[in-house]
Predict the structure.
Amino acid sequence: MKNQLLLPCLVYGLSGGLVYLNPAEPFNLYLEVGFVAGLFVASPFVFHLNSAELQICQVLTFTS
């Protein structure tokens, strides 16, 4: 199946890899992928901190 899809690309001289139209695009791609991966990895910690801060605020409002 993969060979059937790549065959027209090879006929017209295309290698089938990523095509960058700007020299900075590979760098921007690495930044974007890293940013999204960082958000994904950090999200449990951020949500946990927000829930802990919410509990602290609720305790402070009930005691005063």
